[in-house]
Amino acid sequence: MKALVLTQPNAPFEMSEVADPVAGPGEAVARVLACGSGLTIQHVKAGRIPVEFPRVIGHEITGEVVEVGAGVTAVAVGDAVTVYGYLCCGHCHWCLSSLEPLCEAAGGGVGIVGMSCDGGYAEYLKLPAHNFIKIPAGIDYKAYPAEIGVITDALTTPYKVLGRAGVKAGETVAVFGAGGGVGIHQVMLAKWAQAKVIAVDVVSDKLDACREAGADEVVNAANGDVAEALLDFTGGRGVDVAIDYVSVSSTLEAAVNALARRGRLVTLGGAGESFQVSASDLLYKEQAVLGSRYATRRELLETLDLVARGEIWPQVTDIQPWTEAEALHQRVERGEVIGRAALIVG
Ligand SMILES: [Zn+2]
């Protein structure tokens, strides 16, 4: 089969002929139709997330099962599938508690499709069969393979945050990095949850897109004090929830300083920097600082169901044939993509 292979960090893709994957016991192979091209996998390509090379990246996948190994009953040949992105042990305390992202699998962390094994930038993809999740019948994956592929991360990750932060109707939610591939879906989902949404970003085109996606207010962080702007928008009360997809010290501190009483700050990686927070504020204002990592299988199923019911539609603005992967990833690297990018594979 053909695959876009990375042979070392910060190198271009090589369209290569590699061996067809064969499904062993408990495994399945899917033909890949499309794969999302988000910043996370660009971090791998650029060498900012270390992996073993050669590697085929990509985890936001739409595919069709073409082969199942011995003992596989969960999926069958011909099933339309997407992919649950974490490779979990299935039997540790956290897996058994349906909190798969916290899996204690070997090495102290879960494996990730397209990082610890080959992913979706290839004609075929082999995974443990239970990592393939059937696409609900109401979703036209053949017409929209790019959109359906990105549900598994760009839409499910922010969906999980609504529960993690306990977002309630009528609350005010600020999204930092709102114009990015996951941030814009956080804006859409917070609106879906009937919150008032303030989008924070540094690019005015992206803030325009956030308004179109439903943001009630926008703050350009390049133009001054973000915490002050958020306090102004809320009449001095502060935001109930701040969700930080950038997570550098300055955004985290702006977010925590803009929190209302009982406010919750959620960080989702990004730069993952350290920051200053006042324990007295946490105490006297009963505030909380939370981390949120990917999502559970159940949250993926719930998000697929939201799309099947027509309540949310993934925003993929830059869809290219996989022969254009290099140029597309350069746009992702430069932060030029509004919403999500994706490749049509094969
Ligand atoms: Zn586990």
What is the topology?
Blueprint lengths: L1 E4 L8 E4 L9 E10 L2 H7 L15 E8 L11 E4 L2 E2 L5 H4 L14 E2 L11 E5 L3 E3 L10 H20 L7 E5 L6 H10 L3 E6 L2 H9 L4 E4 L5 H8 L5 E6 L4 H9 L1 E9 L11 H6 L3 E4 L5 H12 L7 E6 L3 H9 L6 E5 L2
Parallel strand pairs: 10-11, 10-13, 11-12, 13-14, 14-15, 16-17
Antiparallel strand pairs: 1-2, 3-4, 3-8, 3-17, 4-5, 5-9, 6-7
Bound molecules: zinc ion.
Polypeptide structure, described:
- With 346 residues, the chain is α/β, with parallel strands linked by helices.
- Helices cover 27% and strands 25% of the residues.
- The protein has 10 helices and 17 strands.
- The strands form 4 sheets. Strands 3, 4, 5, 8, 9, 16 and 17 form a 7-stranded mixed β-sheet that branches. A 6-stranded parallel β-sheet has the order 12-11-10-13-14-15, sandwiched between helices. A two-stranded antiparallel ribbon has the order 1-2.
- Helix 10 links the parallel strand 16 (316-321) and strand 17.
- Helix 3 packs across helix 4 (183-192).
- The longest helix has 20 residues, at 145-164.
- The model has no long low-confidence stretch (mean pLDDT 96).
- Bound molecules: zinc ion.
- The site of zinc ion has 8 residues, from helix 2.
Which labels suit this protein?
346 residues; alpha/beta; seven-stranded mixed β-sheet; 17 strands; 27% helix; binds zinc ion
Largest sheet: 7 strands, mixed
What structural class is derived from the secondary structure elements?
A: alpha/beta
State the shape.
globular
Please work out how many helical segments DSSP would assign. Answer: 10
Alpha-carbon distance between the two ends: 10 Å
Q: Which stretches are poorly predicted, pLDDT < 50 over at least 5 residues?
A: none
Q: What ligand molecules are bound, each kind once? A: zinc ion
pLDDT averaged over residues: 96
Q: What is the helix content?
A: 25-40%
Number of strands: 17
What is the C-alpha radius of gyration, as a whole number of Å? 20 Å
Order of helices and strands: EEEHEEEHEEEHEHEHEHEHEHEHEHE
- Estimate the strand proportion: 25-35%
